[in-house]
Amino acid sequence: MSSTARGVALEIINKANSKGSYANLLLPKVLEKSRLSPRDKALATQLAYGTLRSQGTLDWLIMRYAKKDNKIKPKVMDILRLGAYQVYYLDRVPDSAAVNNAVELSKAHYPKRVSDFVNAVLRKVSRNKNKVSFNSLKKDFAQYLSIKYSHPLWIAKLFLETYGKRKAEAMCKANSEVPDINIRVNTMRISVDAYEKLLIKKGYKVKRSKLCKDSMIIKPCGSITGIFGYAEGLFTVQDQSSTLVGHVLNPKPGESIIDVAAAPGGKTAHMASLMKNKGTIIATDVSSARLSLLDSLRDRMKLKIIIPLAVDTRRLNLYVKRTVNKVLVDAPCSGLGTLARRPDERWRKTEKTIHVLSQLQLEMLDSVADLVKKGGDLVYSVCTVTKEETEGVVEDFLAYHPEFKLVDIKNELPAKMRTNSKYGIQILPHQFHSDGMFIAKFNKIKRTKLKK
């Protein structure tokens, strides 16, 4: 294991690119085992996430100065990316230091000719960084978005075709920025006002969410577990658009709830808090390992009404034999609303998966439809922005299930916020500096028999 921040960052970048490792899961484990100081851990995090997030732009810059016929080995390319990120994006790191550190990293793995190559390319990047202009790329606007904001071309095209130039650029820009740290206050343990005062007293900068009254943005952050109140269960990290899902479902004390695809449990815990720990939540997920994360969150937040169940949603009717007041289907999706928070995800996604996922989403809704009581509610949410996974799924579900009607959710939204889809709300990443999220709500108007 590397003993330097840049070495750790290179390890994360290389494993994400060459082995498909998830940076957000791998980095905390590597940092925990390292002997880096808190300051160096913060630097390693910034370098790893920043390089992965900006990788498309960095590759474009690098290849302007590398010979096109020169086949660059994957790890050498990662070293170049790490160096170029510091040169082009980080003013506080002197260019000479960034170049020299990249050269030293290459020397540790390759012969001198490789380190000479790394040195030559990065010095050219440094000399010419103030001359870089993306305006000439605007003739092909999708390519412009792809290169300037570091998105795969197919994603840039999808945003452009779906939302037009102005919104597409705003979305790409938001996805290229460092996301805020959003926390949700556990109002069963402490009021939002009281916790805000305690955080400010401890030296944190706090900003209330515009989407949810129990959500706030906190700076500086550092280690999540080091934030005041973590061990006591006073808060959990949850994006504000995800927190809004719980408010739209609007669970009440004493109700029975099913939350499918529930792990790691942020929305489940929020619902339990809104229910004041009274009632029942059956939290299902196909992964037992992921449900263990929900168990940990449940225990830390002192929540007693959550019953975990490891099962595929499409087989849920074999295990649950009674109807419930409300069901949440926060379905697996393409995650194109979370690209800022998961910087390496954009490079592993493919357009083909969107259609496959939309079919899975519809199957999940079909599977839980009979479990909703007459008069009960069903909420569908996905952290994406594609029409096929959002409005397309809702259209198909309503066509197949006339026993449900669409609910106008305006009363569950903030006062100044309006629904912007005929089926619910589509939050885009740039609007609140949050994850992109689609939410629709249905009410069951006719009773149906449970499938055997």
TrEMBL record:
It is found in: Cytoplasm. One of its GO terms (biological process) is regulation of DNA-templated transcription. Its main location: cytoplasm. Keywords: Cytoplasm, Methyltransferase, RNA-binding, rRNA processing, S-adenosyl-L-methionine, Transferase. Residues 171-445 form the SAM-dependent MTase RsmB/NOP-type domain. It is an enzyme of class 2 (transferase). It catalyses: cytidine(967) in 16S rRNA + S-adenosyl-L-methionine = 5-methylcytidine(967) in 16S rRNA + S-adenosyl-L-homocysteine + H(+). InterPro entries: MeTrfase_RsmB-F_NOP2_cat, MeTrfase_RsmB-F_NOP2_dom, NusB-like_sf, NusB_RsmB_TIM44, RCMT, rRNA_ssu_MeTfrase_B, RsmB-like_ferredoxin, SAM-dependent_MTases_sf. Specifically methylates the cytosine at position 967 (m5C967) of 16S rRNA. This is 16S rRNA (cytosine(967)-C(5))-methyltransferase. It comes from marine sediment metagenome.
